[in-house]
TrEMBL record:
Catalytic EC class: hydrolase
Occurrences of domain USP (ranges): 1-60
GO biological process, one term: protein deubiquitination
Superkingdom, taxonomy of origin: Eukaryota
Protein name as annotated: ubiquitinyl hydrolase 1
Gene Ontology molecular function terms on file: cysteine-type deubiquitinase activity
EC number: 3.4.19.12
InterPro entries: Papain-like_cys_pep_sf, Peptidase_C19_UCH, Ub_carboxyl-term_hydrolase, USP, USP_CS
Catalytic activity: Thiol-dependent hydrolysis of ester, thioester, amide, peptide and isopeptide bonds formed by the C-terminal Gly of ubiquitin (a 76-residue protein attached to proteins as an intracellular targeting signal)
SUPFAM superfamilies: Cysteine proteinases (SSF54001)
Short name of one Pfam family: UCH
Organism: Ciona intestinalis (Transparent sea squirt)
Length: 92
């Protein structure tokens, strides 16, 4: 099972145009439009009515959901600066 996580949309014709992206925030479940330097909250209907060029999916996994909830809980329990500058021991 997979969840749609983002799409790329091409506006224009074969000779030229512009690309935008719609991405879903996994924590809030809200969709955002990315258009150059602008990021805007959009209703889900905007995404479902779009004609995507590329679609991205995230695999559903109970392990991933559990890990995501643990990170979100850690973020709520700690000072904001801790999560902002956290570096994994494996990365070091």
């Amino acid at each position: 099972m997979y969840d749609l996580s983002s799409v790329i949309v091409h506006h224009g014709g074969a000779g030229g145009g512009h690309y935008t992206a719609y991405c879903k925030n996994p924590a809030s479940k809200e969709w955002y439009e990315f258009d150059d330097q602008y990021v805007t909250l959009v209703p889900e209907a905007t995404v479902t009515e779009a004609e995507p060029y590329v679609l991205f999916y995230s695999k559903k996994s109970s392990n991933v959901e559990i890990a995501r909830e643990e990170v979100l809980q850690l973020d709520k329990e700690t000072e904001p600066s801790f999560m902002k500058f956290y570096v994994s021991v494996e990365w070091l």
